[in-house]
Amino acid sequence: LGFPHRPSPHPTPAPQRAELLADPGFGRVFTDHVATATWTVDRGWHDAGVRAAEPLSLHPAAAVLHYAQEIFEGLKAYRQPDGSVALFRPALNAARFAHSARRLALPALPEAAFVDAVTALVRADQAWVPEPPASLYLRPFTVATEAFLGVRAAEEARFLVTASPAGPLFAGRDAGLTLWISDELSRAAPGGTGDAKCGGNYAAGLAAQAVARAHACDQVLFLDAREHRWLEESGTMNVLLVTADGELLTPPLGTILDGVTRRSVLELATDHGLVPVERPVSVDELRAGCLDGSITEVFATGTAAVISPIVTFRSAAGEFAVGAGTAGPRTLALRAELLDIQFGRVPDTRGWMVPL
Ligand code: COI
User: Fold this and answer.
1) Is 80 a pocket residue for ligand 1 (Cβ < 6 Å)?
2) Does the beta carbon of 74 sit less than 6 angstroms from any atom of ligand 1?
3) Tens digit of pLDDT at every position of the chain (356 positions)
4) Spatial contact of 220 and 270, defined as CB atoms under 8 Å apart
5) What Rg value do the Cα atoms of the chain yield, rounded?
6) ipTM of this predicted complex?
7) Protein residue closest via CA to atom 7 of ligand 1
8) How many other C-beta atoms can be found within 10 angstroms of the C-beta atom of residue 275?
9) 59 CA → ligand 1 middle, Å
10) Atom number, ligand 1, closest to the C-alpha of residue 137
């Protein structure tokens, strides 16, 4: 499946693009093109290419609009010191996208085609890749487009990648986030879609996020659905803890997203003198550890969030701080190393960066 480029007849004029790139915010500015491919049950994937970004035309009965048969991904393209552009571990996103497709009964795009699509789009819109610390956020997604109201896997779907120059997800919150521990609303249950990246998971998290905001918190920390006891993830991020005896602790996979940043940080841990440990962590252990100092730092990871320190937890039972209530040294060191790798400021010894 190739992605030939048909340039937009109306590209954004360079001065306007420069203005948008100067302060893009997160998720508000979009480039001139999309990558796309169509799937039908009888033809498979076809009609692939990079085209002008235009509004989609969907039948009002399109399955995605009714039954949320949709999956998505998030990855970034980074401007390198020599002016070139590189992607961070796109094969991991491709594999997770295929996993999500199987769970949502959508056609799985071949993983190589996923990387080709993203690469073709970034090549077409290379001028939209901002200077550090901003980057080009890429949002691949597949939606069920078949007009059919019976509930079954759609026989027509469309894959797209849209691109958005982006700054930080939590602008102005570098000092650290406050999380609301959600003891009523859950995100995912065993056997559910928690480990798939589908829109429905995020829609289901919005009410909990509103509760968090009402308590002046930045985000939610979800607990397991069965016992409301075990840490899961924070709506858009995985959660990791640093212990006083040198462990980098994080909840195991299962009902949470297999985050690319989560995985990368676990792989960087040993170089930072930390032992990566994936095991269930209870909210009681979190609270007790923060209070007695055996948990020294907590942070959240995500493509959009990068590595964001968490300095306070709040719940119906009250609140507690992590460490001194400021971003911890391990958090900052891991964040600095990850960003140095992504922006090509240190040698990529792990082969994580993929040049265009
Ligand atoms: C990401 O970090 O890529 C996400 O998908 C989180 C959010 C922006 C939905």
Assistant:
1) no
2) yes
3) 899 999 999 999 999 999 999 999 999 999 999 999 999 999 999 999 999 999 999 999 999 999 999 999 999 999 999 999 999 999 999 999 999 999 999 999 999 999 999 999 999 999 999 999 999 999 999 999 999 999 999 999 999 999 999 998 888 888 899 999 998 899 999 999 999 999 999 999 999 999 999 999 999 999 999 999 999 999 899 999 999 999 999 999 999 999 999 999 999 999 999 999 999 999 999 999 999 999 999 999 999 999 999 999 999 999 999 999 999 999 999 999 999 999 999 999 999 999 99
4) no
5) 21
6) 0.96
7) 236
8) 12
9) 27
10) 3
Which atom of ligand 1 is closest in space to residue 139's alpha carbon? 3
Q: What separation in Å is there between the alpha carbon of 130 and the centre of ligand 1? A: 19
How far is the centre of ligand 1, averaged over its atoms, from the C-alpha of 82 (Å)? Answer: 28
Residues in the chain: 356
**Atom of ligand 1 lying closest to residue 304 CA:** 2
Phi, psi of 258 (to 5 degrees): -80, 80
Q: pTM score, two decimals?
A: 0.96
Span from the CA of 197 to the centroid of ligand 1 (angstroms): 9
Q: Within 13 A of 348's CA, how many CA atoms are on the CB side?
A: 16
